[in-house]
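Sync notes, pocket subgroup
Present: LS, DG
LS reminded everyone that the earlier model was apo-only. Rerun requested with pyridoxal-5'-phosphate included. Inputs:
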Amino acid sequence: MPQFSDRVERISISGIREVFEAAGEDAINLGLGQPDFPTPEHARQGAVDAVEAGKADAYTGNKGIPELREAIVRKHERDLGLDYDPEQVIATAGGSEALHIALEAHVGPGDEVIIPDPGFVAYDALTKLTGAEPVPVPVRDDLTIDPAAIEDAITEDTAAFVVNSPGNPTGAVSPLSDVKAFARIAEEHDLLCVSDEVYGRIVFDGDHRSPAEFAPEQTVVVDACSKTYSMTGWRLGWVAAAPERVERMLRVHQYVQACASAPAQYAAEAALSGPQAVVTGMVDTFEERRDLVVDGLRDIGLDVPTPEGAFYVMPEVPEGFVDECIDRGVVIVPGEAFGDAGEGYARLSYATATEELEEALSIMEEAYEAVR
Ligand code: PLP
């Protein structure tokens, strides 16, 4: 048996993959975490033009090309009124690397990191990879992240907490009062707040707000083109933060990634600077599907808070329901894949054509009748 690191032995391959593999080829897949739209034409063209002009052949600067970082700064100014300098931005290999360098640069053995439960699977794993201890804190009954629960979980070892709005797997959007509370907690307890905002543009009710508006020094914003522009394959995200935090994250990024993929950087620059109507159109479609799925699940008899963003819905489900759905050809993900507090829930992604969603709902109704 070869020798492996203790840190790697503490994490495992995400449970979500196993669910996909258990399902047949014709199954309707409501398990996916990516939009079912093509990447906007102007974003693709940005990459094509750069490649054809020979601009994408070499390493870029470690932080990324200036045009992209300027476009990211304009995006944060436009959406949230934030005032970053392009030097405060590092382009990364997706939101995933952004989360990785944010945690790696700030926490390590002996530290605790408070994460939402249920929460995106990477928070637990990436925290463990730093040698720090994840401290999962259950979300409220309406599936929003609870600032009071974060504050209660703080110990002398707490170094950071992660918030995620709109949330995966919940679709929950933190109201402004909670966002302000996250900022206050970070400042009062001198903690890092990692704010994962990759679904920030996909909001139906209310507004997306960021703790960085109220505690800019304490917050690392993690964002990406992946969900907003249906660009998961391009692997392009970023961190934005105070200069001394950026300098530490750059040390990690420089050695694990050197720079984000050059063609992807040009595509992202075009996506962010070009027409935004594609995003609005996609969000309108998601909202229609959200309503269809939430109404359909309630008609079946399932309890489900109305998700206000992202493209997930998380109903409470009876025991055996997830397996019954998968057996009948509808792939959904058991809530416990996202943390212990997810037990008794399931995550459904509605990034799937309306006709498929309608068919899936009728199959789920049969599954519910079979297990309840
Ligand atoms: N953060 C959240 C909440 C996500 O759901 C995901 C992907 O599913 C990511 C980050 C990672 O995104 P990327 O594909 O840009 O690495």
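DG: Residues 33, 94-96, 120, 164, 168, 196, 198, 224, 226, 232, 237 surround pyridoxal-5'-phosphate (CB under 6 Å).
LS: The chain has two domains: 6-39+277-371, 41-273.
Action: DG to write up.
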